[in-house]
């Protein structure tokens, strides 16, 4: 299993061993012991799968607020996505930093995202299936987000953005809710 650090953050990009033979291939999509040894201790409480159509379509950015932030293990099982996480945790040395990865259904890579990060992705293929194990259950009252083009972050997206949900168009500016972002923007 290959474990890559994600910048200086405590997120991890894990590539499990791919056992290929004449039938195809086999890889683990999660393993408590080896993931913990890789620095990502995690207990899945919910599994999500989303099918998205149309290159450029974007889901996010979403996060679940304290006291129930939602760590997740994200895998693209079909197609290709530009995946972005943003550290929103108070006190984190990488607070405010964004980390982008291409996740490809042809590779069994998984992005291990601690709770307190926002997450979103844009399709690089015409269709994509994204599956993720969640370390916290969905709590609608704590479900939050910000726009992909929030002025406080300046996130770059590889394709013209399309297919946003009404909710993802309407998130309020982050700086109004996280003063430390506004201060940083004026630093
Ligand atoms: C997240 C979630 C949603 N829902 C319901 C709520 C809506 O009626 C429907 C679609 O929800 P939403 O439009 O928020 O789905 P996405 O835009 O794919 O949200 C996800 O996109 C980004 C990339 C993520 O990382 C999160 O896992 C998740 O926020 O599913 C549930 O029933 N359970 C859930 O856990």
TrEMBL record:
<keyword id="KW-0614">Plasmid</keyword>
<protein>
    <recommendedName>
        <fullName>dTDP-4-dehydrorhamnose 3,5-epimerase</fullName>
        <ecNumber>5.1.3.13</ecNumber>
    </recommendedName>
</protein>
<dbReference type="GO" id="GO:0008830">
    <property type="term" value="F:dTDP-4-dehydrorhamnose 3,5-epimerase activity"/>
</dbReference>
<dbReference type="InterPro" id="IPR014710">
    <property type="entry name" value="RmlC-like_jellyroll"/>
</dbReference>
<comment type="function">
    <text>Catalyzes the epimerization of the C3' and C5'positions of dTDP-6-deoxy-D-xylo-4-hexulose, forming dTDP-6-deoxy-L-lyxo-4-hexulose.</text>
</comment>
<feature type="site" description="Participates in a stacking interaction with the thymidine ring of dTDP-4-oxo-6-deoxyglucose">
    <location>
        <position position="138"/>
    </location>
</feature>
<dbReference type="GO" id="GO:0005829">
    <property type="term" value="C:cytosol"/>
</dbReference>
<dbReference type="InterPro" id="IPR000888">
    <property type="entry name" value="RmlC-like"/>
</dbReference>
<dbReference type="GO" id="GO:0000271">
    <property type="term" value="P:polysaccharide biosynthetic process"/>
</dbReference>
<dbReference type="Pfam" id="PF00908">
    <property type="entry name" value="dTDP_sugar_isom"/>
</dbReference>
<feature type="active site" description="Proton acceptor">
    <location>
        <position position="62"/>
    </location>
</feature>
<dbReference type="InterPro" id="IPR011051">
    <property type="entry name" value="RmlC_Cupin_sf"/>
</dbReference>
<dbReference type="GO" id="GO:0019305">
    <property type="term" value="P:dTDP-rhamnose biosynthetic process"/>
</dbReference>
<feature type="active site" description="Proton donor">
    <location>
        <position position="132"/>
    </location>
</feature>
């Amino acid at each position: 299993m290959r474990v890559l650090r994600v910048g200086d953050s405590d997120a991890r990009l894990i590539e499990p061993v791919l056992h290929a033979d004449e039938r195809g291939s086999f890889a683990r999509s999660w393993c408590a012991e080896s993931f913990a040894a890789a620095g990502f201790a995690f207990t899945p409480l919910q599994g999500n799968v989303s099918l998205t159509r149309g290159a450029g379509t974007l889901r996010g950015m979403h996060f679940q607020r304290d006291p129930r932030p939602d760590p997740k293990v994200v895998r693209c099982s079909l197609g290709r996505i530009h995946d972005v996480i943003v550290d929103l945790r108070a006190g984190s040395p990488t607070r405010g930093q964004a980390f982008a990865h291409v996740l490809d259904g042809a590779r069994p890579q998984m992005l291990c995202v601690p709770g307190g990060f926002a997450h979103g992705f844009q399709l690089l293929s015409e269709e994509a299936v994204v599956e993720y194990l969640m370390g916290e259950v969905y709590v609608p009252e704590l479900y939050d987000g910000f726009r992909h083009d929030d002025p406080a972050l300046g996130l770059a997206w590889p394709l013209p953005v399309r297919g946003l949900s009404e909710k993802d168009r309407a998130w309020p500016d982050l700086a109004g809710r996280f003063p430390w972002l506004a201060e940083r923007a004026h630093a």
